[in-house]
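Consider the following input, taken from an annotated entry for Small ribosomal subunit protein uS12 (Xanthomonas campestris pv. campestris).
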Amino acid sequence: MKLTEFRPASYTSLSRRAVIRPAFVFMQGRFLASNQKNRLMATINQLVRKPRQATTYKSASPALDKCPQRRGVCTRVYTTTPRKPNSALRKVAKVRLTNQEEVISYIGGEGHNLQEHSVVLIRGGRVKDLPGVRYHTVRGSLDAAGVAKRRQGRSKYGAKRPKS
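Applying the prediction step yields:
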């Protein structure tokens, strides 16, 4: 008779279970799973050689220079198409700010009166489906008129309260 006939089926499951279970290693006076070996703290010598780097803050709207808004002059007003899967003609303006930086700003709302040499106010806030557009024009301030006949969300579009 062959040896395989007498072998129970549980032997194979036992060997698989032993492989899956993590091996434990004794290091520095404590037990660590084998996948945690590299997560130990740095030694003092390692920190002397290369100190810890403080996480640097990267602004989402660097052209504003930590200001809430900035004034600028439109150098070009045009439409552009969004990334896939969206399809539209989004209104944007290239704006030269008072700190001499040139940025692309999204013009929100239906219809606008902006043209070249219009003075606009820019706030931060990107448009997800337009690459490179990290700023919004503030409607209802300076040369940018508010959205006409806007009933809801009027404060975002600079629309006055309609007469009832």
